[in-house]
Amino acid sequence: MADNKRTRVDQLLDIEKAITKVWEDEKAFEVDAGDIETERKDKVMLTFPFPYMNGALHLGHAFSLSKADFAAGYNAMKGKYVLFPLAFHCTGMPISAAALKIERELKSQANPTSDSPKPIEPQTQSASQEPDENDLGIKQGRSKKSKTLQKGGPNMTQMEIMEKSGIPKEDIPKFIDPQFWVEYFSPIGQKDLTTFGSLCDWRRSFVTTESNPYFDSFIRWQFNRLKCMGLIKFGERPCVYAQTDRQPCADHDRAEGEGVIPQEYTIIKLKVPKDKLPECLSSLKDDPEEVFFGAATLRPETMYGQTNCWIGYDVNYGAFRLKKGEGIIICTKRAALNLAFQNKTEEYGVVDCITMFTGKDLIGCECVPCLSPLKTIRMLPFAGVNETKGTGVVTSVPSDAPDDWWGIEELRSKPDLRTKWGVKDEWMNNLDAIRIIDVKGYEGKMIAEVFCRQIQETIEKEGTGNLQALKQDAKKESYRHSFYGGTLIVDGPYQNKSITDAKNLIRDDLIRDNYALLYYEPEKRVMSRSGDECVVAITPQWYLDYGNEDWKTKTKKALDNCNVFFPEVRHIFEYTIDWLKEWGCSRSFGLGSRLPWDNSVLIESLSDSTIYNAYYTIAHLLQGDMFGSKPGLLGIKAEDLTDGVWDAIFGLTPMDDKGDEHNPKIALATPNHTIPASVTTEHIARLQKEFKFWYPTDVRVSGKDLIRNHLTFYLFNHTAIFPEEYWPKGIRPNGFLCLNGEKMSKSTGNFYTLEGAIEQFSTSSVRLALADSGDSWDDANFLTDTADKGILRLTKELAWIETIIKKPTEESTGPLVFDPDNLCVVDASKLGFFEKVFNARMDRAVSDADNAYSKWLFREALTRGFYAICDARDAYREICSQENKAMNEDLLRKFIELSTILIAPICRQYADHVWRHELKKAKSIIRGSWPVMDNSAQKVAQDESLVEQGNYFSNVLRDARLSVTKKAPAKGKAKEPEKKKDVECVVYVRDEYFEWQQIMLTLLQELFPNEKALEVAHSESPCTCEDCIKKMDVEEDSDKPKEKKGAWEPSTNPDCIRQPSPSYIMQAIVKDMKTVHWTRAFSHEVRLLIEKYETRLSSEFGLCEAVNGMTKRLEKRIFDLATASIAGKSGGKMTTLTIPEGSTPAQAKELTKLWNVMAGDSLQFGVFMLDKAIKASTVTVFDTKRVFSESQILTESRTQIAQSMQKSIKTPIGKLEVQVVSVPATLTEDELSAKLDPSNKTKPAESEFPPVALRAVPNKPKFKITETEAQ
Q1: Is 808 left (phi over 0), alpha (psi -120 to 50) or beta?
Q2: Where is the Methionyl/Leucyl tRNA synthetase domain (predicted)?
């Protein structure tokens, strides 16, 4: 079996290699605007963030890139001019950090007494732009062992990793030069993507950094221009900082913690009187500096309510000396280190530790609070103190912090705990909560106590199993209510001020009066590529002023005009644009381009990757290779590309730097506006033509983790540099790629390099499995089983095509000859019914695939295009086999051509092989081969009817076979000899919907008035409140729990505008059937849901008229639905269903059960029809009239039904007759009457229709089989 698979894979690999060589020889993907005389509407420019080149590409890269590549192939087949360029990113620290490790390891080998290099920790791989520093890739792809274990374990050195990754041992020393990495891996990336069949114009490829002088000139021009516009500034600001590298650590310089930003705290100075110092601090009694506990808080406005202070019993603390006159702070060493990098110590970055001790040494220590009415407070132990968060010293405000209230209650109620921790009983005095905030909805109460009492009640009923989750919820909810709905009630200047207004005012007062200081630390742990934990440092640096309000306004306008494909994504962009402020754009270590006015620093990796799409349009004219080592087609030298040349190319007015009035001493940009004589007017005109033809980018594809940095920067920088006509038109984020349902990660071994995956499955099967992985912005799933099945499907399909074309078979009179220049045209008027169905199915598959490809729904294109047309062929082949006739040759030609076209955007090499070598077409399938379809309403309706009839008939044949398939005799039981029998089959069909089903369909029409509403049938409306943004999970974080999808729950956040999905509302409305029937009105809860949906219909779908009177109309629909259901179930004997007087509890229970049955039947039917409409992408499915007569079709096809059944009957048969009987839609079982009158033991009235017929519904006939001994 394995050998057979390998043979098939090798067959595909040989085909792919040969076709790729043909493309290279033909220069198939090279396209120049200078050679095109057409309107710009015929162009499509697609891009993907350039991958980071410190190792081999992996499936995560391929998944994101494949979206753009599939779209590029589709648009090229539609006859458009497509540009899909790709470059390679080398800016940043990962390469330099890895090179430095190798250098240290070589020195260590030469001098064994030197310090050993740090082991490299295995890291989780992201599907985005930049992998971790050791992502070299192993050719064989995935192993059950982790990648680190494959290489020998977690303590592998960088050199050992290189060697295990296939790098010759003698070449490894070359990698101490970062430039060697750039030159080594970038060509490998191009080779892998060429093997992958990417439709890339490689002439336009480049590497970033100073390695390519042409691209370097472009970046320096961009930054000169931003500086002249006043958008780059200089100053001290907090940033995540790598201690070893002594520079800011931007997102792509991190091994862990991408997206983490500095968190601002206020450290409250709780001064310790010298006569109150504990024994561990007795040496400080004569020190001239004040000693204070540094308590970090996010809520300085609550200091009025301090009752005590928390410390961790086993936490390590120290006394650290700050700048002269600033005092001695007691905190954790981690916090002291952050403070040292925030200019709080005498020597920047150096911690002056006086002594160390643990929390138990501080218990009971008295200190002086600020703002609190208490004169002194004590240090008490608390298990919830986290040494890795804040300073390890926590203020206690039990009135407004549930954790504090809970901690005090535990100490009070547990004397054994007090004894264990050394807490004296008298210390528990003066710990009563102090009410300082009046909260809306909780007037006169203390919010923390309210929520904690609720927890106590809950655990009394349910136990403590869920206690931690309850505490977390209480903490979150009390904070939200207090902050957004609270008013300060204490005496003072801020009495009666809202908490949102008072917070910063109180903080500023505390800092001014020396009661507090600002403190920053990373939101969560960040590890640099060099292996150390990052701190937050205050550093002087150049930064992009993304907080500029005018710039934000322009960027929001660009977003408004940009297609981002998913409403949730738009809201994340909006949130990010509002949130974003300054962004450090310089660093001193790594690779990159240098700031033009300050050559001592480099431009960081997320800042040199914002407008490079514009460089793609002209790169091939400027540079001769990806490294820019020689001039390109125009012969221009890199040193001649002045700012004046770049301005001219992009049609921009030259600008000069006016400086910063607030910081007049900073360096000025000095752009060179001259245009050298070597750059002629003709050169400028040619470059302008390329840029103006291709730009702007039509769609940029990317992983969703880049929304909050790279993609937002992409929008900002385009609005700054270019006029509006060149702003991005589309951004399509996608989720991360899972592998077989699990996160793709080298550390677990669940991982494939692109080269390894291709070698194991072939390019075509990898691409097919990637297309099948998913199209939403949720995480996708690459299934190796799908790739394996793809191998079999493609090779079997190829073998069938080769056979059917070359010689006669039972299926074809053959051989088939194809027109080398045109597609086969079929005259449908000359076809029989089953041929017409096959023809319509093929046309439908093309239309559906066309629609899906145009919407970037590649799994849907694969399913409803290629898979659907193959299914149609198989169904037609089965019919022909039953009738012992060959398939229609014109239809076979059409099928082979169209099926090849439908798979071509995905399996490009496979399809072009079939196109050229099997069908003998004159041109490649890549260019302009997509068929022009008749999409007139008449043709679509005709095809839809035929497809419906064909699908229906296929299902009937399947059900007919199943109806006569007998089970095997029980094990051990002798099989009796079969006698010949005559078989009579009666097929019961219903040509109409029940009345209640028709009402349900009108209800669906009401709720889903158009296809747009249908598209979001199972989606909640997006929202950008804090809670909803956190649920969107745009960062790949293994520790973050995924959002649970289930029933909709309303948010308690007052800022939340999230609304339930239409399908959820439909279910709620139908379930309210009993209430409507009895009261003629919906329940209050359902009315609120409908109001929410009315808002969504008008705001999101623009259907304002559909909203008018909607609630009343729906109430009538549900009342009619209830009445019709009762009538139908009772055979027309009843129209209402209420609990009769004198009913027993059992009878009342039975009635309630019946209501649930009716609602359940309605919902089951509604959900079935909704899913059918979603799959068909049309609301015409909700029409109440059938598009064809089932009884007529089956009556005309009784012979085919009999033949299908005959194949499944294993016993000898004489005659087999098939009859078709149409059942009236009004005929039902008398269910209600029998159940409502327990004394009535009679069955429903007998009729000519047996019970099996009564359950016949549209699209689902019932079979009655009668066997008699043959005469």
Answers
A1: beta
A2: 687-786
Q: How far is C-alpha 111 from the geometric centre of its chain's CA atoms?
A: 49
Residue 312: CB partners within 8 Å, gap ≥ 6?
Answer: 359, 381, 382, 383, 385, 386, 387, 392
Long-range contacts of 889-892 (CB under 8 A, 24+ apart): 889/812, 889/813, 889/814, 889/816, 890/824, 890/826, 890/827, 891/826, 891/831, 891/835, 891/838, 891/839, 891/842, 892/804, 892/811, 892/812, 892/816
Task: Name the residue among 1155, 1156, 1180 with its Cα closest to residue 1169.
Answer: 1180
Q: Which tens digit of pLDDT belongs to each residue from 1070-1106?
A: 999 888 988 889 988 888 888 878 877 777 666 666 6
Q: What is the mean pLDDT of the chain?
A: 86
pTM value > 0.85: no
Determine whether 457 is exposed, middle or buried from the number of CB atoms within 10 Å of its CB (0-12, 13-18, 19+).
Answer: exposed
Please tell me what DSSP assigns to residue 127: S
Cβ-in-10-Å burial (0-12, 13-18, 19+) of 1045 comes to exposed
Residue 428: strand, helix, or coil: helix
499/229 Cα distance (integer angstroms): 38
C-alpha 1046: how far from its chain's center?
18
Cβ neighbors of 608 (< 8 A, separation 6 or more) are 91, 208, 219, 592, 593
Q: Give the closest residue to 29 by CA, choosing from 67, 74, 62, 76.
A: 76
Per-residue pLDDT tens digits for 768-818: 999 999 998 888 999 999 999 999 999 999 999 999 998 777 777 778 899
CB of 346 closer than 8 Å to CB of 338: no
DSSP 8-state symbol, 750: B
Report, as an integer, the average pLDDT of 547-569.
94
Angstrom CA distances, 840 to 831, 833, 891, 1190, stand at 11, 10, 11, 18
532 contacts 100 by C-beta, under 8 angstroms: no
Q: How far apart are CA 708 and CA 580, in angstroms?
A: 9
- Token pair for 1061: 């999905």
- The lowest-confidence range among 70-79, 744-753, 997-1006 is 744-753
Which residues make beta-bridge pairs with 734?
Answer: 703
- Per-residue pLDDT, 1196: 83
User: 936-961 burial string, b = 16+ CB within 10 Å, else e?
Assistant: eeeebebbbebbbbbbbbbebbebbb
β-pair partners for 732: 701
Q: Where is average pLDDT lowest: 135-144, 667-676, 780-789?
A: 135-144
Length of the chain measured in residues: 1271
Contact predicate 220/39, CB 8 Å: no
Pair of tokens at residue 247: 């520079």
Q: In what order do the strands lie in the sheet with 731-734?
A: 81-83, 43-47, 699-703, 731-734
Amino acid 143: pLDDT: 35
Residue with tokens 């504090």: 404
pLDDT at residue 972 above 70? Answer: no
Q: Is residue 675 helix, strand or coil?
A: coil
Element (H, E) at 519: strand 516-522
Q: Is the pLDDT of residue 503 over 50?
A: yes
Supply the DSSP string of 1067-1110, one letter for each residue. HHHHHTHHHHHHHSS--HHHHHHHHHHHHHHHHTS--HHHHTTH
